Task: inverse folding
């Protein structure tokens, strides 16, 4: 699949990738790696985090701290969003890309897409506004993009139904994770210093600042209560980004859960 309009084929492509949170940084890194494999001459710049930088993107501003869900959380990060959009505008005015790929982060990219449209820069939405939250306004969101790349069948049905050029690409994790056979499960358990007979509970508070702030204490409280019933339980808690690590480890230590998580 080509993300670049046909008029640019045969020329060095300049693609701007925008990710406004940790999950977008991960998605953007996989996209960048695929683009560079298919077209080594492509020039990638954008906003995101360390993962995109390692994948070959010239990261202009770090935006992993801007993650939010829905309108209310987005309002709390609005000053940072406006400042970042202003900086992006300034850069793109000096160095115009052939196409912009906006990954997730609904409110942030609504601001940016509107400006890109005025400059005539083709816009691709990858992981568009989630339909479980924004589905009722999809008909107003869709026309703001030249392409919409969908990852879930339900999502594709909604956006395809309101028009626009919608392409179902599936979820990149299907290629990354693969299947977990018995041998791989045993390797994972050994790496986590867990036994085959351990009863393991996953704690997944999320990858956004607000999720760590509000959900993690609740999850750890639940873990304590479960341990009160069964001391044999072991917990696995993935850290989505290093910027969260100190806070997570401190809270786990304060609750004396170090030996169980």
Result:
């Amino acid at each position: 699949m080509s993300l670049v309009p046909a008029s640019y084929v045969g020329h060095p492509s300049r693609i701007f990738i925008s990710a406004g949170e940790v999950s977008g940084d991960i998605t953007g890194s996989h996209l960048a790696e695929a683009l560079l494999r298919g077209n080594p001459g492509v020039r990638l710049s954008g906003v995101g985090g360390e993962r995109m930088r390692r994948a070959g993107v010239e990261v202009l501003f770090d935006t992993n701290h801007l993650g939010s869900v829905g309108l209310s959380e987005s309002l709390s990060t609005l000053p940072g969003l406006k400042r970042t959009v202003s900086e992006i505008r300034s850069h793109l005015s000096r160095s115009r890309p052939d196409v912009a790929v906006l990954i997730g982060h609904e409110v942030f990219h609504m601001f940016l897409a509107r400006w890109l449209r005025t400059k005539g820069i083709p816009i691709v939405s990858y992981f568009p506004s989630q339909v479980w939250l924004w589905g009722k306004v999809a008909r107003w969101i869709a026309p703001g993009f030249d392409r919409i790349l969908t990852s879930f069948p339900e999502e594709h049905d909604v956006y395809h139904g309101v028009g626009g050029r919608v392409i179902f690409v599936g979820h990149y994790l299907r290629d990354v994770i693969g299947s977990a056979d018995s041998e791989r499960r045993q390797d994972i358990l050994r790496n986590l210093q867990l036994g085959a007979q351990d009863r393991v509970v996953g704690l997944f508070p999320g990858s956004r600042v607000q999720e760590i702030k509000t959900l993690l204490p609740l999850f750890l409280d639940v873990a304590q209560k479960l341990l009160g019933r069964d001391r044999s339980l072991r917990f696995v808690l993935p850290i989505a980004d290093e910027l969260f690590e100190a806070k997570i480890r401190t809270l786990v230590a304060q609750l004396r859960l170090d030996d169980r998580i």
